[in-house]
Structure formats: C-alpha cells, structure tokens
Design a protein that fits this description.
It is a single chain. The chain is mostly helical and 152 residues long. It has two domains: 3-92, Uncharacterised protein YqeY/AIM41, N-terminal domain (Hypothetical Protein Yqey, Chain: A, domain1); 101-151, Arc Repressor Mutant, subunit A (Orthogonal Bundle). It has seven helices and no strands. The protein is globular, with a radius of gyration of 18 Å.
Length: 152
C-alpha cells in the first residue's frame, strides 16, 4: 500500500473514530503533500511527488516540530512542547523503521563502492544515492559525517 493511500485511509478511520489529534495531523500532512504535488507539476508529469519525496516531507515536518519544542521549552511553554511531541509521534507512524548504526555503516560502505567514490568531492553523489534509496530510514546529517570520514 502506498503512503498516499495509507494517509487517506487513516484520515477516514480517524474521522470515524472521532480522534481529533490524528485527524488534524493527517489533514496537515495531506495538505502539505498536495502543496508539494502542485509545485512539482510541470505540464508533462502530473503524477505528484514520489514516495521518497513524501518521506522527506515527513522528516521535514518532524524537524520543524523539534525546533518548535526547543523554542517552547526555552519560553516555558511545556504544554505546547508536549503537543508538538505528540504530533511528532503521530508523524513518525508513517516513516519506515530507522536503520541501526551498523546497518548504516555497511550501507554507506557499499554505496561508496557502488558509486566509485574516491574523495570528499564525490560525497554529493554518495549522499544523493543514499537519499534516494533510504529516505526516512537514516539520519542524513549523521550519514554525511560518516561518508566524509570514509572518503577523507
């Protein structure tokens, strides 16, 4: 089942179950997804964004909420921080399970070999392949540090 279908089905289920928190976050995700689909239209391809791009969208939404949590905690808004964390928990339900450190290390080594990367100049190629294949499954901030270390 595609992520789009799962989101649509979950919206219907949350409406039937009268779960306002889940309904709100799924609607927010679907609205952001629709915005990205519209922006991606080029007159030839109107299919919308790919699954990998949807996963990046979800990761971006989580990142925004983590930044908000920090700001709320600094300002004493503990209740708002808890609400943001609850939204993060709901969004994470749509992301694939994160890979452990050993798996990430092995995947990076394989990707470096497959791409034929030999120096830090090739880092962009490696990260691009990792993003395409493993979006939502690894932290690319940490992965880029590992790639840089391996290529240095």
């Amino acid at each position: 089942m595609s992520l789009r279908t799962k989101l649509s089905d979950d919206l219907k289920e949350s409406l039937k179950a009268k779960n306002p928190a889940k309904t709100a976050i799924v609607r927010l995700i679907l609205a952001a997804l629709k915005d990205k689909d519209i922006a991606a239209r080029d007159g030839v391809n109107n299919a919308g964004i790919s699954e990998a791009e949807i996963l990046r969208l979800l990761e971006s939404m989580i990142k925004q909420r983590r930044e908000s949590i920090v700001m709320y905690e600094k300002g004493g808004g503990i209740e708002q921080a808890k609400a943001e964390q609850a939204e993060i928990d709901l969004i994470q339900e749509y992301l694939p399970q994160k890979l452990d450190d050993a798996a990430v290390d092995a995947i990076i080594a394989q990707t470096i070999t497959a791409v034929g990367a030999t120096s830090v100049k090739d880092m962009g190629k490696v990260i691009a392949v990792l993003r395409e294949k493993y979006s939502g499954q690894m932290d690319f901030g940490a992965a880029s540090g590992i790639v840089k270390a391996k290529l240095s």
